[in-house]
């Protein structure tokens, strides 16, 4: 039986170079109008009973090649459970084997969260009496930028993610957050929503998600470098969200992401903004300390270097919102690998753990909201 590969579906990305016996050479396709690439998601048919070696031959030229060492491909035969499989990175080539005992298998950079899954999440959430839905605007491809609002409290909280569409753990996190916020019987959520109004944008980049991009929208624009001067032509996704933030103000901002290289969950802050104060910064640091004490799936030792005073990039949302509103602003980074302080040998960092981290972060916010 002939091996066939296909990525012509929602969020798919791969290109077949050649099949030589039981060795398949592949390339990841660039984001449109961009040099970025790293996300892959494809299916294989016709390999039942064979051990096939798959080689992503352009891995060394990807956006973050330093993320490949120690990384493991996710594989699934039902598109529900995504397990890590042995993977090696040698001389710029990412290689893995699979012995087929089913008619179909799917491989991905991380457990996918497609636009069809997003639409289902939006539909479920909109049915909750706790949620108010708004369509803030549309993307360059005409897809909706969905926003949900919860609570009536004074402090305005904005939670948004998937500016980089290949970071699919982001929307798994969002699913967990929305499930918790729509749980009308949860006492912690109820207490939080008495003091806050929480706005959630679960997917900032629907076009990149559907197209199978790593980092950019339909125009090849990195949305997390557009927050100082977003435009309708380049970044309407950012423009509509920032305009909505201007209407409400922002006390707390959470931008949810994934990181290729660091095998841990961590936060990045707003050090280096012109209006930095130690008092505001201490609220951000205290949130991280409390989150680390609350869950073994978070830590504060590993992370990005801090910006020096006056050097923060204000085109990035976390810096822009801290400067613009005096917000306690943070970027969550989750791993494509695993959270090494609390590892899982079978699944690594996973959809379910992303969802649980969202719960822990909302619980931690409830614990210290009076201090913000």
From TrEMBL:
The protein's matches in Pfam families, at most eight in alphabetical order, are given as: Pepdidase_M14_N, Peptidase_M14
Q: Which InterPro entries match?
A: Cytosolic_carboxypeptidase (IPR050821), Pepdidase_M14_N (IPR040626), Peptidase_M14 (IPR000834)
- This protein is called Carboxypeptidase family protein
Q: Name one GO molecular function term.
A: metallocarboxypeptidase activity
**Domain named Peptidase M14: residues:** 111-372
Q: Which GO terms describe its biological process?
A: proteolysis
| Lineage of producing organism | Bacteria, Pseudomonadati, Pseudomonadota, Alphaproteobacteria, Sphingomonadales
Residue positions of the active site: 333 (proton donor/acceptor)
Q: Which organism is it from?
A: Sphingomonas ginsenosidivorax
Which co-factor is required? Zn(2+)
Similarity comment: Belongs to the peptidase M14 family.
Alphabetical UniProt keywords? Carboxypeptidase, Hydrolase, Protease
On whether Protease is a keyword of this UniProt record, the answer is yes
CDD domains listed in its UniProt record: M14_PaCCP-like (cd06234)
């Amino acid at each position: 039986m002939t091996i066939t590969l296909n990525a012509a579906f929602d969020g798919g990305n791969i290109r077949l170079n050649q099949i030589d016996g039981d060795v398949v050479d592949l390339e990841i396709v660039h984001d449109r109008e961009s040099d970025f690439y790293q996300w892959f998601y494809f299916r294989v048919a016709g390999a039942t009973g064979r051990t096939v070696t798959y080689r992503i031959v352009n891995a060394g030229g990807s956006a973050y090649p330093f993320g490949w060492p120690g990384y493991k491909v996710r594989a699934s035969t039902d598109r529900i459970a995504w397990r890590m499989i042995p993977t090696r990175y040698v001389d710029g080539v990412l290689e893995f084997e699979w012995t087929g005992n089913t008619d179909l298998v799917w491989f991905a950079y991380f457990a996918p969260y497609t636009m069809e899954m997003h639409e289902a999440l939006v539909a479920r959430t909109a049915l909750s009496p706790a949620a108010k839905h708004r369509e803030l605007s549309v993307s360059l491809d005409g897809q909706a930028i969905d926003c949900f609002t919860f609570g009536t409290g004074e402090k305005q909280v904005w939670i948004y993610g998937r500016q980089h569409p290949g970071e699919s753990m982001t929307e798994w996190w969002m699913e967990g957050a929305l499930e918790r916020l729509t749980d009308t019987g949860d006492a912690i959520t109820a207490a939080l929503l008495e003091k806050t109004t929480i706005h959630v944008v679960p997917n900032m980049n629907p076009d990149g998600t559907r197209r199978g991009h790593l980092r950019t929208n339909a125009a090849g624009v990195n949305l997390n470098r557009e927050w100082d001067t977003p435009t309708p032509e380049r970044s309407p996704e950012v423009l509509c969200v920032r305009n909505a933030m201007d209407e409400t103000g922002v006390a707390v901002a959470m931008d949810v992401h994934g990181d290729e290289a660091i095998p841990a969950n961590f936060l990045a802050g707003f050090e280096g903004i012109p209006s930095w104060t130690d008092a505001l910064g201490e609220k951000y640091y205290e949130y991280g300390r409390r989150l680390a004490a609350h869950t073994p799936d978070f830590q504060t030792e590993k992370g990005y270097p801090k910006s020096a005073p006056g050097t923060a990039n204000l085109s990035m949302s976390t810096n822009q919102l801290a400067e613009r509103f005096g917000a306690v602003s943070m970027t969550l980074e989750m791993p494509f690998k695993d959270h090494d302080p609390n590892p899982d040998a079978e699944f690594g960092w996973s959809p379910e753990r992303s969802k649980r981290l969202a719960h822990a972060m909302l619980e931690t916010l409830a614990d210290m909201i009076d201090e913000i």
